[in-house]
Write a structure and sequence with these properties.
196 residues; alpha+beta; Protein kinase-like fold; two-stranded antiparallel sheet; 14% strand; globular; disordered C terminus
Length: 196
Amino acid sequence: ECYVQNTAREYAKIYAAEAEPLEGFGEVPEIIPIFLVHRPANNIPYATVEEELGGEFVKYSVRDGKEVNFLRRDSEAGQKCCTFQHWVYEKTNGSLLVTDLQGVGMKLTDVGIATLAKGYKGFKGNCSISFIEQFRALHQCNKYCEMLGLKSLRTTHQKQRKATSMKSKNLPNSSTIKNTVPKKAREPRDFISSEH
């Protein structure tokens, strides 16, 4: 929990450094730090501690991306949270997504991170890869995405789906592959992705 939230916090700091100087962008979401406390004399020896957030607690994004949250879509904080998700997604080439954004105003806590199956730079998130796929399919850019110059995911997602459907029409069925590819060649392999 500490590792996930503090990793997301580091991404939020970089996002803030890029977004705050932009004219008209204004305040950016902040993920508050969370600390692990060791209490050896206690029957529960570890606990987490973080700042108490007073005010109306709002979920700006849900873990699985299926729910439509009007506070997310219509509020400044919600739009900036969605832009933050888009920014992280783009910066990591679609390999990582900060999700489950919630908190009071611009202060966020208890976030989640989804990564591709192999993780991202040695980090594995605590949410399913399906959250990345759902985000890619459901995200709607807003004025803050445009201010940061983020690429529309709609166009990218539609191109990927079209290319995938065209490729699948030209591919042989699985029984043909089984008969022509030796067993050893069909075993899954670990690939290390390089970053550009």
